[in-house]
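Re: export button greyed out
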Amino acid sequence: MTDFSALSHLVCSRTGTRYDADAVQNLSSVGAPLLAAYDLERLAATWRPDDLRGRTASLWRWHELLPVRDPAHVVSLGEGGTPLLPMPRLGQALGIDALWMKDEGIVPTGSFKARGAAVGVSRAKELGVRALAMPTNGNAGAAWALYAARAGIGATIVMPNDAPSITRNEVALAGAQLYLVDGLISDAGKIVAQAVADGGLYDASTLKEPYRIEGKKTMGLELAEQFDWQLPDVILYPTGGGVGLIGLHKAFAELRALGWIDAAHPSPRLVAVQAAGCAPIVEAWARGATESAFWPESRTVAFGLNVPKALGDFLVLEALYASDGCAIAVDDAALLAAQRQAATLEGTFVCPEGAALFAAAAQLRESGWIRPGERVVALNTGAGIKYPDTFEATPPLLQPGDRLPR
Ligand SMILES: *Cc1c(COP(=O)(O)O)cnc(C)c1O
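Workaround output, generated via the alternate export path:
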């Protein structure tokens, strides 16, 4: 028997300084993200993969490696437990022998942001937060507004004016305070930071609170279990703020520390996929840098990727270098073509961000970076139906009584 959570403390991602996990925290004193640390040594002695048997399929099956201490504080809409779909026909078209897609399109709110929101909101509730605020490109705001509503916590959300309108409606419908900004997510971030400084709101911005990443980390835990603890060779991830990628890296490190995956086996090579119109991580990786530079006048139809400067960029780059991965950009035309190809060949209607992965995989296979026989996973982060305007069908219009053309 273990405690519900093995959370031990928080640690500054730059200096390694310890922080109290049971107080409300944002950034460390040097302005860096705080990451959750667990008592892995004790867990390793008491917790086994067999203990997962019979548990919920949702991400809460991993509760020992999540920060919520009391199950009564769990705020859930059934997130997690997403399928790992073989993609044989698309794989064949791309020249990849073993291609899978982990499909986050089916989670509540239609994007993997639900994972971060479920864990972040649950922990905020547990720590007594009454109202939170965050900037968003759409999906995160929608997820946090809905989970906050379920938790009875107030939410203030600021998003760019051109973020997908469905996400706007989700936020408004959830009863949150919604503001649009005539600018980018970085402009929304400044407005939220000022509102937080003015008092009364908890800053739930990406990586400014420590627990969203814990929710996203569960994608990596699930992948390990779905691959029977034999991790794939390559994982492609559509990178905006990069939280999911940092989370995958953290998940594998924790499983290695627990002895659930072979410490001698090389880590999957992590690939940060970005849009050509906003590729600060790709640019930084190409010059071997440890931080990215602000990407001016960013634009892409893949809204989740429109993050001109990520707070956790150094953690993303660290994960890429440590896993022998890479970063690659694809243009909007290529990702939209890949979206159609995935739907046509596999029946999967993925979001533009997820579609970018297949365009990137094609390039990496062509260049030889993905080798024959390697097991490749694309992490599709959301549902295509959340972006109704990225594709327009133009079917023939019939009149009543018309016959179909032969
Ligand atoms: C937010 C988002 C991303 C980027 O996620 P990060 O973890 O912030 O890099 C990718 N795809 C979709 C659909 C998103 O909503």
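The CA atoms of residues 1 and 51 lie 9 Å apart. The button fix ships in the next patch.
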